[in-house]
Amino acid sequence: MGILAWTWILVGITFALYIGIAIWARAGSSKEFYVAGGGVPPILNGMATGADWMSAASFISLAGIVSFTGYDGSVYIMGWTGGYVLLALLLAPYLRKFGKFTVPDFIGDRYYSNTARTVAVIAALIVSFTYVAGQMRGVGIVFSRYLEVDIDTGVYIGMFIVLFYAVLGGMKGITYTQVAQYCVLIFAFMVPAIFISFQMTGNPIPQLGFGGSGEDGVYLLDKLDGLHKELGFHEYTSGSKSMIDVFAITAALMIGTAGLPHVIVRFFTVPKVKDARVSAGWALLFIAILYTTVPAVAVFARTNLIETVSNAKYEELPEWFGNWEKTGLLKFDDKNGDGVVQYVADTSINELTIDRDIMVLANPEIAKLPNWVVALVGAGGLAAALSTAAGLLLVIASSISHDLLKKMIKPNISEKGELIAARVSAFVAVLIAGYFGINPPGFVAAVVALAFGLAAASFFPAILLGIFDKRMNKEGAISGMIVGLGLMTYYMAKFKLGWIGETPPPSEWWFGISPEGFGTVAMVFNFIVSFVVSRFTAEPPSEVQDIVEHIRIPSGAGDAQTH
User: Fold this and answer.
1) Angle between helices 42-53 and 151-201 (to 10 degrees)
2) How far apart are CA 302 and CA 67, in angstroms?
């Protein structure tokens, strides 16, 4: 069977599974819609968190970044995994003990202020929409290749699927759907990696294979370094970023992970406080399976790509090249008219334009793996993008229906009315997300990295100080969030999106830090402003200070002290 037939079969089976689970686990109350009734076992919650977390950026784009940037791409791997350690140690158990449905709910109650809640809702919406744009773009890319439709049509199909199970099932439906999606995406990522590792190095374990040697006895990384030098690219195993930028990007991704609202809400879905920490541990294990494989996939894909296309005659290129050309994500411009593909670093000579986001998806085709493996990767990419998109849409829906409507505009709204509002909000959010998917501000992982910077700049200081500083008051938290979010948004608009005049070159970056890493700087300003303002304004009410004291005490500690 051909790739298209296999794709229809595998995508059809997986989508039927997701929709079936959504119908079986549909939400019947607002608690089930927001936090799955708070009864998800830690191991399943860890798996669902892994799927929620491993988005299109992780599945499709991360290995693409690493394959093109080499050593420099390691900041994404370090930042995105390290963030879970921060989350498990500093935030998850305390937020679970506080017992609120959403991050704006925590900030609104902890800082006894609807203004603080409103700022948090705005931050949640900006972060979530920035993030979801990358997911919908990923869905469009997968559909455009495997179902042979254009990217925009692919986005529309993805919108319909997400809308169905996010609006119907809420967090309860999404959680159990994400467990299935994790199984699909990890199987889809690992199978071709194992195949290609064995094919190129004789070792079926990708993590060991990419550090080994091929049939010619040359270490794979040495071989890739040599290919890069020949073509004028930067050496694969050495970095070009400054140390301060590497530190800033890694820190922004770590701290952004710990401040992402759709990840934090996952820890409200477990029965007990202890389970929040345990499920964070499980999530880290499930995530590590993919993240430790990414560098290997990146090296395999990059090596295969260069050896296949560089200096090859255009009419003799394999079928996969033509398939990806049709999507517009791979372009050949025969500048010298000799019919030979010149793939080099010098842009005046280079004739090949490659979208980084295709590397994982095209990798099995480049390596000539069976058609069912190629189609499986497509199904995995869809699982990754759809699982995260659903989680983000739920954050958007709950921010509007619970934090704005229920908590501020219409406190007496009925349970049924709140549930209807949440579903309407999710519907509108899907439409906006689809628009951003069709008109994205950059390739998938770059867009997602900016969302992490926004989360780091806005949420993290407010949450951390809210847990560990009794003296932190509403004036400090509100000032800090506004300064952090405003600074990051301005920097992103000026240096990344080109919304403020022409985009300046990297030489004009503040402190030499890229937009992806500037969340760290904005976060520091947030901390400073929050701390200083809180010390020059009134203390929080005594009952708020008591709550802060209480959420830091482990459950049962009081009983232990009486014996």
Assistant:
1) 110
2) 5
- Which are the contacts of 562, defined by CB distance < 8 A and separation ≥ 6? none
How far apart are the C-alpha atoms of 381 and 415, rounded to whole Å?
A: 36
User: For the chain, where do the domains classified as CATH 1.20.1730.10 start and end?
Assistant: 3-22+32-301+368-554
Q: How far apart are CA 145 and CA 154, in angstroms?
A: 9
3-state secondary structure of 412: coil
pTM of the model: 0.79
Strand partners, 330: 354
Query: In this structure, what token pair is assigned to residue 358?
Result: 């295709």
DSSP 554: P
What would the 3-class secondary structure string for 326-349 be?
HHCCEEECCCCCCCECCCCCCCCC
CA–centroid distance for 324 within its chain: 24
Residue of 412, 87, 142, 90 whose CA lies nearest to 264: 87
Choosing among 1.20.1730.10, 3.30.1360.60, 3.40.50.720, 3.50.50.60, the CATH entry for 3-22+32-301+368-554 is 1.20.1730.10
Helix ranges (DSSP H) in 111-260 = 114-146, 151-201, 206-209, 220-231, 243-259
Which residues on adjacent β-strands are paired with residue 219? 213
Spatial separation of the C-alpha atoms in residues 23 and 360, rounded to whole Å: 32
Q: Name the 3-class secondary structure at 472.
A: coil
Rg, the chain, Cα only: 24
- Distance CA(137)–CA(152), nearest Å, equals 9
Distance (Å, rounded) from C-alpha 279 to C-alpha 315?
52
In the structure encoding, which two tokens stand for residue 497, read together? 């999106």
Nearest to 170 by CA among 47, 56, 38: 38
In order along its 563 residues, the chain shows pLDDT tens digits of: 777 788 888 888 887 887 787 777 665 555 555 555 456 778 888 888 887 777 777 787 788 888 888 888 888 888 878 887 787 777 777 777 777 666 788 888 888 888 888 888 887 777 777 777 777 777 777 777 777 777 788 888 878 877 776 666 566 667 777 788 888 888 888 999 998 999 888 889 998 888 878 777 788 888 888 888 888 888 888 878 888 999 998 998 888 877 677 777 777 777 777 777 788 788 888 888 988 999 999 999 888 888 888 888 888 888 888 888 887 778 888 888 888 888 888 888 888 888 887 888 888 888 888 888 888 888 888 777 777 777 777 777 777 777 777 777 877 787 778 778 877 887 888 888 788 777 765 555 556 667 778 888 888 898 889 888 889 999 999 999 899 989 988 888 888 776 677 778 888 899 889 888 899 999 999 999 999 999 999 999 988 888 888 877 755 444 434 33
CA 348 centroid distance within chain: 34
Rounded Cα distance, 195 and 375, in Å: 14
483 in Cβ contact with 284 (< 8 Å): no
User: Between 114-146 and 151-201, two packed helices, what is the crossing angle to 10 degrees?
Assistant: 70
Read off the tokens for 408. 């501020």
Q: Which helix (H) or strand (E) holds 37?
A: none
157 in Cβ contact with 389 (< 8 Å): no
